[in-house]
Amino acid sequence: MTEPRPELGFSTLAVHAGEERPPGGAHPTSTPVVHASAFYFDSAEALDRAFDDPSLGPVYTRHGNPTVEAFERAVAALEGGEAAVAFASGQAALHAALLASGVQAQSRLLAARDLYGGTLGLLSRVLAPLGVETDFIDATWLEGVWSAFEEQPAVALLVESVSNPLLKVSDVGALAEAAHQAGAVCIVDNTFASPYLLRPIQHGADLVVHSATKYLGGHGDVTGGVVVGSADACKRLREVARLAGGILSPAEAWLTLRGLKTLALRYERQCANALALARALAEHPRVARVYYPGLPAHPQHALATRLFGGRGYGGVLSFELADGGRAEVFAFMDRLRLIKPAPTLGDVSSLVLYPAMASHRSLTPEQRQALGISDRLVRISAGIEDTADLIADVAQALA
Questions:
Q1: Which domain holds residue 48?
Q2: CA atoms of 286 and 104, how far apart (whole Å)
Q3: For the segment 177-224, what is each residue's pLDDT rounded down to a tens digit?
Q4: 172-181 and 142-151 helices cross at what angle (nearest 10)?
Q5: Last residue of some domain: 210, 238, 260?
Q6: Most buried among 61, 180, 379, 396, using CB within 10 Å?
């Protein structure tokens, strides 16, 4: 079996990309899990050549592994990139993407204000002490982005395709153009949108990052990350992975590759459930505001419609209770019967999270307030359950 053609449909690619037919007459229908820390060759000369030429085969799993490489090929195909490099978590993938982009001591980075709390922590508590300066910008205000680049040089721009947890949508093409005009690398965290909704590389992004723990794996049973980009960029990324050591294990690679095969089916249902929940919550008297790009009232609704091509608006929504705060949010979460309180997203099960407690816990109340994350904000990741059951669960918990 040859590598699937990129012009195939998304679902076809999701099922077949990454698979490789080994030599012999019988071929497994599932990619084998290669549990080996190292590999040997028929001669020392062959092993010596393999250290310099990965196409001759792996030598050590920290350098590469057949199961991990199958997963990397599959994600690269789905994102429309030349190559991909897998990591042990989304945070490890993002860290490597920043390092491979030239972020180092005394360099300047532009980053969207609306980022996952863990990303904000990486920038402020890991990179800042090493001398990396990060300027946080409103990525939805394009004139401000251009001005920020004009003020002084920056090596990279970091944004999320759909922000966590306020669901702001980035105009990836315009942001990539601004970055490239300034000689900077454009890095897009595409975890929320997934390649089903958006392929940032087609809009000019240089590197695309995923927490594979979320929609790519999709079943709440794996932790991983991946970065997609050009072949040259992935050479730098692979060096970071090899030297820093934050590699994805073969078992996790296999689980995520299996999850990828149903991404289109799962994500289509999750988008539909999220839209239905958003519409129901927008009409509920106990809800003050709903954040979801699929609602016409969302500031980037038209942009999301254009970028996502009618395939949906994502599987995550957030909303604010009309009154109360932490205690009322906790009471709502405790009354839910189907939707699970868990600090993640993208699972087949619907999940609820309190950003002030989990994703943005490391920020002070003042910092959260400045970002628009109030003590009344709740985030829901829609699963694949029956829509009516999810709406009923939320309604009884709000009653």
A1: 10-260
A2: 47
A3: 999 999 999 999 999 999 999 999 999 999 999 999 999 999 999 999
A4: 20
A5: 260
A6: 379
CA contacts within 13 A on the Cβ side of 143: 0
Bridge partner list, 86: 226
Task: Judge if 113 and 240 occupy the same domain.
Answer: yes
- Is there a domain that residue 104 lies in? yes
Distance CA 390, CA 121 (A): 33
Q: CA separation (Å) from 165 to 92, 108, 189, 321, 355?
A: 21, 25, 13, 15, 7
Residues carrying an active site annotation: 62, 116, 189, 214
For the chain, give the percent of residues with pLDDT over 70: 96
- Note the pLDDT of residue 367: 78
Q: What is the pTM of this model?
A: 0.94
Count up the domains in the chain and report the number. 2
A 10 A CB-CB count for 129 gives 8
pLDDT at residue 364 in the model: 73
Q: 260, 288, 317 — which closes off a domain?
A: 260
Pairing of strands 225-229, 207-211: antiparallel
